[in-house]
Amino acid sequence: MIDVELVILMPVVAAVLCGIAPRERAISWISIAMAVVGTAVTFWTCGPVFLDGTVIEYSLWYVDGMSAFFMMITSTVALMVSLYSRNYLGHEREEKALDAVSEKVYYVYLNLFVAVMLSVYTMSSLGLVWIVIEITTLISTFLVGFYRDEKSTEASWKYLIICSVGITLALIGISLVYASAVGVVGDETSALDWKVLMAAAPFLDPAILKTAMVLVVIGFGTKAGFAPMHTWLPDAHSQAPTPVSALLSATLLNCALYSILRFYTISEIAIPGFASTLMLLFGFMSLFVASMFILNSMDIKRTLAYSSIEHIGLITIGFGIGTETSIYAALFMVMAHSLTKPILFFCAGNIMQQYGTKDMSLVRGMGKKMPFTATMLSIGTLAIVGMPPFAVFMGEFTLFYAMVDSGLWMLLALAVTLIIVIFAGFALHIYPMFTGETDKDVHDPRGFTRHLPFVILTAGIVFFGLFMPEQMSNAIEGIVHGVFGGAL
Amino acid sequence: MDATLYENLIDICSIVMLLISVMAIASTRMGKLVQLFALHSLALSALAFIVAWYTGNNHIYIMFALTLVLKVYVIPKFLEYTMDKISIEREVEPVIGIPGSLLICAIMMMIAYLVTEPMLDSLSTLGRNCLAISLSVVFIGMFMMSARRKALTESIGLLLVENGLFLGAMTISHGMPLIVEFGVFFDVIIAVVIIGIFAYRINRTFKSIDVSNMRRLKD
After folding, report:
1. Residue A111: pLDDT above 50?
2. ipTM
3. Touching check for B190 and chain A: CB below 8 Å?
4. DSSP string, B26-76
5. By the 8 A CB rule, do A259 and A220 touch?
6. If you average pLDDT over every residue of chain A, what do you get?
7. 3-state SS record for B136-165
8. Is the Cβ pair A205, B216 closer than 8 Å?
9. Out of A151, A165, A190, closest to residue B217 by CB
10. Which residues contact B50 (CB under 8 A, 6 or more apart)?
11. Count of beta carbons in the 10 Å neighbourhood of residue A32
12. B-chain residues within 8 Å CB-CB of A239?
């Protein structure tokens, strides 16, 4: 059995091939080809795990339905980003903003970053997950600081320092859990494994576990973008090259979220109600902060970054409510957000390269001059604010239904109000961009690989907004069952 | 070694680490700060050696050797090399003055004792004191990261945090599984090297490594 190794190896091979490719024009094609192969391998390995609920478990690896779910999302988004990167970087090369070596470095880091993100979901031990998440920070710092100007250097420095400190807090939490678990389990090497911890959870010391849970949620929450530890997120997302912003938003935040969910599961078995209260608190804080900034921000990429904080907040609320329906809704929203957000970032990339600005108040007349981007941006905006018939709507609707079901009327009112504020913020800043006139010579960027990701992702969010295949629905229910400590 | 002697030695080592952290907050010279960090790591490696000897646990000997080689020698040399390379002035440049910083340290130590109190019942006698001290060192390291202007002081702050963490893990549960400790250790080393690279880059982009120059990104 080398399935799991193969999944992680594919992007690593891609990175190596990009690094040694003799012809610079070939690099982007190598990346795309390897991303296609990598995605195929991921689906081939994880598909059965996800659909049938089997578990791959050997040496360091542990892949269950939840891991498989997140891994398939990561691979899909990575493929889209590889496709979009080709033309995006090509345009930068034409504008002389980028040299050949930087382009090569970009693809090497991009693929390594994907490999590390995939491996987060495969680790059997909580300690190893921590290590891998720290490596995601270390690698993506170079991608955030890719342009090496003052702003991106500042953003990457902030990202590196804030996330390193945050995650150190999580490590303290992990060492506390280990101290508490090693006495129960007895075996030193396996005391941090998810499965062993799940079995040992009822016997863990509640006082230690509470402190540990707070530290872990704050620590990994920093990386997931929970307010008030989110300050690195808008900077990093806005300064990174646009394809990387999409990857950060749609997949990196999921990594941290996944670790919190695993921990949440253990904590809910030992001390029911504690972790969920914590999650509700951070969820609403994130939602509130995001709504305030979306209303006022003029920078398109910062707005999108705050929108990621909003969705992470909603997903966290779903876990905080802690009923089967709400967790189902949260998992569905993870997927919906990861498929929708890249569309918007790619639109932002098109706009930035044509208009040369990120300031939404300076962009006008898109409807006439960039019809394709304008259409996509308008679809993406409707989708991300939760309009039917897109996937995010289904997620939010299920989440609200779960709130009603649990009688949380006040929370429902608060969440709906904040989402309306966010809707207003988006409408206020995005829609004026379509109308009006512009003197600038702008047009839709050409290129098949540039348009393809828009089409695939839009098809995806419409599909999941209208239909929910029964197998998939059953599979997500299986994951939810696992969260409640059922047979994994 | 009998148990009382062991506990006393552990206590001495951890208290030395706490004192050095406070001295690091009080120091005004970059060179001195790096030396203090080396001493801090030396105390940590001594502690690792004592724990290893007492428990007879082989993997803690490995941690002891790694700490001694990398944190006492290699990382301080690397930091000094970086400082030479970007030829910064040797002042620390605190945002909060030294007396104020020391006061804040004292408050943080009290908070650490307060926070750990609910957990004390379930820990061995050895863990009780050390957990609070380890948390204090972590807090002091974080404070150094936020209250000092130079990019390099932030990396020393991160290293202090990491040392405090190992102190906690070592005394409460005799470390973590070997593979996890290895990973954490090398993550930290890579983090420090990357911070060094970025300090160099910040110096070139902003003509200074004063991180308070970086105030461009806001809403």
Report:
1. yes
2. 0.92
3. yes
4. H--BHHHHHHHHHHHHHHHHHHHHHHHHHHT-HHHHHHHHHIIIIIIIIHH
5. yes
6. 93
7. HHHHHHHHHHHHECEHHHHHHHHHHHHHHH
8. no
9. A151
10. B6, B9, B10, B13
11. 19
12. 217
